[in-house]
Design a protein that fits this description.
Layout (H helix, E strand, L loop, with lengths): L3 E4 L2 E4 L4 E7 L9 E6 L6 E6 L6 E3 L7 E6 L4 E6 L8 E8 L14 E4 L3 E6 L1
Parallel strand pairs: 2-11
Antiparallel strand pairs: 1-3, 3-8, 4-5, 4-9, 5-6, 7-8, 9-10, 9-11
């Protein structure tokens, strides 16, 4: 069992930056590939970024490539999402998740492969 708690969301102007954190409980955090997803009002939850168990492999949705960076610190059981050059269309609730289906060596963009989810943190980007 893994419990995930996101933090770092807030209100920011377009062009600004935020850094999201996701703290995981349990001693098996390094056994999981991790992902960030987001859900805007009236829309389905969508993939943002993912990282392998050791940080050696990452994947990003095209909409955030070059602006967002995912990283992790296994010693602190934490995964991060650095978000730069934020746009109003980035406004959403952001969720971190642990991958429970498939190999932890590779990141995955498939929502159905993630079995543990945090409660989410709101990110609002004003124009």
């Amino acid at each position: 069992q893994v419990q995930l708690i996101e933090s770092g969301g807030g209100l920011v102007q377009a062009g600004g930056s935020l850094r999201l954190s996701c703290a995981a409980s349990g001693r098996t955090f390094s056994s999981y590939a991790m992902g960030w997803f987001r859900q805007a009002p009236g829309k389905e939850r969508e993939f943002v970024a993912a990282i392998s168990w050791n940080g050696g492999n990452t994947d990003y949705d095209d909409s955030v490539k070059g602006r967002f960076t995912i990283s992790r610190d296994n010693a602190k059981n934490t995964v991060f999402l650095q978000m730069n050059s934020l746009k109003p269309e980035d406004t959403a609730v952001y969720y971190c998740a642990a991958r429970t289906v498939g190999s932890y060596w590779y990141p995955s963009s498939r929502l159905e492969e993630y079995g543990y989810w945090g409660q989410g943190t709101q990110v609002t980007v004003s124009s």
